[in-house]
Amino acid sequence: MKTKINPIVITLLFLLTVSNAIAQGYSLPKYSTFKLNNGLTVNLMEQHDVPLISIVAVVPAGAIYDGAQSGLASLTATALKHGTANYNRSVIDDELDFIGATINTAAYKEFTRVTADFAAKDQKKVLSIFKEILLNPTFNEEEFEKEKSRLLVRLEQQKESPKNVIGSYFDQQLYGKHVYGNINSGIKTTVEKLTVTDVKKFYEANYTATNSAITIVGDFAAADMKKSITTLLANWKKETQPKPDLANTKIEKPTSAKVLLINKADANETTFYIGSTGISRDNPDFVAIDVVNTLFGGRFTSMLNDELRVNTGLTYGARSSFNSYKNGGSFTISTFTNVKTTEAALDKAVQVLNTLHDKGINEQNLTSAKNYVKGQFPPEYETSGQLASLLSQMFWYKLDRSFIDDFEKNVDSIDLAKANKIIATYFPKDNLQFTIVGRASEIRDIVSKYGTVTEVNISDDPKM
Hints:
The protein is of the alpha+beta class and 464 residues long. The chain has 18 helices and 12 strands. The chain has a 6-stranded mixed β-sheet with strand order 1-2-6-3-5-4, with helices on both faces. Strands 9-10-8-11-7-12 form a 6-stranded mixed β-sheet, with helices on both faces.
């Protein structure tokens, strides 16, 4: 007779565990790292609370390597699942669906991620499929053409919603010719020209074990998993010559205020980003910057949201963020407003940023932000998937475990003098960049007061 497990009891035990973790301070669970002869880094972390396993592989094959073929990295990542030497697409889908497992692929700015989540009992089958997708894709031409057609439709559909495209426009405006300005999903005029041959060439050039990593977290014995992974991935090819770090070129800080106005003639709202250059992910002040940004625009009860939503009703929400990569990044204020309140919202956002610089923050607000950040910290790293993603990020950005183990201590060490220095050092004030999507006929004159204006139509592709 099977004993029924009360879900309420499980929930209470889970909450108790989380509460204890918060009270006692969080530290990164034990894990092991080894490297195969082909240069692949492997992280293994045993977690036996639930019979699940998560895998995250990161490969230096992101949009920064697209060159003039914008969208190539993204299409290549998607095409990995179109069939392999031993599994066609339908077999992959059927096998995974039958056991309730998932394998997903996606390309980002700097890298491609291949992830898997599955029951521990199915690890042999899923590992075999995972290896095939990563090492032996065949890039079926018929499937590729279908995927390209779907992507072209999505690219057109995205233009109906400014929030889906404004980030790409801002990156191009801020980074210029730097590869961080490359658009992950691509643009119509370049995607139309891509062929399955292009995808195969991109795969051959970029999908190597060298400088890649695979992280496995979950219910397994590390010694056994090490043998399995070594057997499966030891023959993954390594680079024949060092790969250039395309992102390791200087990102020029803006020297004047500029406005990129993207005309959407039927827009009833104005969507905008205000920002400038930011920080690289390994910046030693990353934690302090996160705390200050939480107070400024990183949570619902932030300075930005209070002023633009609560006090003035100019928007339903406003936020700020630092988007960081290996060799640089951006800072943005983002929100939207009714066309009629465009000027008021833009003025208010700039005013709040100026207030941050002119008045700084006080002890009470700093304490509130520190407590908020510490409270949000442990729940971000609870599941096997979250931990696998964390270790992958640590590999990619060359972070050691002190980032996690010393996190709360580093937050607590931020005093008022440090916080206000962070504001002066990292939060932009002059030469701001404005990316604005809206009805140009009504806001063209308004936005000209913020900087030199360049105007484009949302129906046109961004210039690469």
